[in-house]
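Chapter summary example: a protein plus flavin-adenine dinucleotide.
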Amino acid sequence: MYISEIFKEKPNTLSFEVFPPKKSDDLEKIMSTVTELAHNPVDYMSVTYGAGGTTASYTTDIADHMQNTLGITALSHLTCVNASKDSVNKVLLSLREKGIENILALRGDLPSGVNLENLEFSHASDLATEIKKFGGFCVGGACYPECHPDAASLDADIENLKIKIDSGVDFLVTQMFFDNDRFYDFRDRAAKKGINVPIDAGIMPLTNINQIKKMCILSGGASMPQKFTRMIAKYADNPLALKQAGIAYAVDQIIDLLSNDTAGVHIYTMNKPDIAQKITNVINDLF
Ligand code: FAD
């Protein structure tokens, strides 16, 4: 089923994201993780695409498992930086053969020294155009409530986002954020620029101190409200308490988002089904 259709049918959606393993030995473990996640009332699940495409076949295998073994709508991520049209079309063909109908079209991070002008795809919007030309897919795109790190300003980033929407992107998934007000501000600004597709809010339950440090770097420095930094400071030396507090913070964020008409919540599960389960235990009637 197209994810755009799920958004039409439901006032709020719940989705989970997993990432593929680096080596084939770990593939079975991730398949079990996905199976466990599927026990929750989830509307769709997504699987990331390793930069450089070295784990591309695992992404397709995991999406296949979601879609065809578990019967959960799968969203397969696909990056285009450094990819050729031929290689992209091969992936599209393989997804089509497996009955996967949803793709998150991404540029991917630019490797250092690469000049955008020398690439077959410079932006995610070029990939969205190629996928729509191929046909038969619902296409999602990424967005950044606190601005993509390469963009000159949030307004410039939203102008670029409009190009992506006009290239055929049907819905958006945000970068993680911890301050819902940043998301509401972004959503208002995007709407003023004519961006009216459903926007899934990306929520990362932060449950250990190393993950917090790593994620804040990867997310390009998502701002942290005082409530959040106080929580980290208070429980930094108590891993069990920090895990509980991190889950409670994510639940609190989700309830506020749903109360403010957010189309969907996309949980970055970090391949930890127990944490996703603890969250949905508290909020499953909200979806
Ligand atoms: P784009 O939409 O191309 O934007 C990149 C930059 O270019 C922005 O600054 C934007 O303002 C600018 N821009 C966009 N279009 C234009 C245009 N037409 N003209 C001029 N400037 C333009 N990475 C992975 O490697 N694998 C994944 O599976 C993955 N999944 C992700 C999922 C989500 C929900 C998010 C938020 C990010 C994900 N990423 C993933 C990271 C992502 O690839 C990086 O953030 C990357 O730097 C940008 O990708 P994008 O698709 O947003 O790029």
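Key point: The chain has one domain: 3-286.
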